[in-house]
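Hey, quick one: can you model this chain's 3D structure?
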Amino acid sequence: MKRLVSILVSGVILLLIYWKIDFSGLIGVFRECDRPWMAISLGMVIPLTMLTAGRLQMLMPGTGGKGYEPEPELIPDPWDLKPDPARLSFWEANQLILAASSLNMVLPSKMGDIAKAYFMRDRGHLTGFLALSLVVFEKACDMLSLLLWCVFGLLLYPQKDWLFWVMTVSVLSGLVLGLLLLGWPRFAQFFFRQAERIAPKKMGKKLVTLSHSWQEMHDYFWGDRPRLAKISAISIFIWFLHLLQIWFFILALRAWVPFVTNLALSPLAILAGLLPLTFAGVGTRDAALILFYAPYFNAATAAALGVLCTSRYFIPAIAGLPFLGQYLSVAREIRRG
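Sure thing. Here's the predicted structure for all 337 residues.
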């Protein structure tokens, strides 16, 4: 029911947007697009998926690492040049990323990401909390990297009115909070205890599980600081490429925005799409793009940019459909649990 409501809200917002801008104007923007730039920008989905899969490989413990229990009777993965039952092969990591994208589209509460934790537990012989902690750390790196680029862009953004100052302070506060949670275990424990006290009973149980996973994550990743630094750097680079892709979308639509300005505006639109109001951020993200990019190009071009930004989620989801079957049983296990 929640998913149906979110789809309905997305549909209503899109209808209002397209009614106001004239749908034929949106079609005209795509007809006049720069096709080579369009191919380049859409094609960036491939290296982004591969980099994300490589990072997922790095998150898994190696042989003899913490959370690993050797199981010699396992059949080695033929796609891995150096088979290691504790690690995902590159091909398997790509499958998992794409299948999770598909599950996130059709199931609530980012269940695809949770399914990754279940699969890594089964495939990598990790403890349940450690598997969940890997996914939590992956999502935390993504969010903090996005906020970091957003703060960088907002600080350099030249046309700041009171609204942009409020957003700058808000995003910077979120970045500082995230860094404290990630780097200061005592603060994280205090934060989760306070959150558990004020949260509803059902949410409180989830917070208890999350707090345990968060502590496991601290113990696991801070014990290997060189790898922590490497994964953090890769996450920041991945999100640089995400924002570069959006800038390439703008070039493909024959519009122009300074790249540093795009570093400020596109993360704000992505954050708007994360609000739990619409289906996959469709609608809220589109409206934010029209609002934030109004000084640089018209609403029809911004709406076209919204369609392209949505494609960043739908293309991996479609590519993950052939691999979805083997992960549906994991999703059913999660729902039964």
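One thing worth noting: The chain has 15 helices and no strands.
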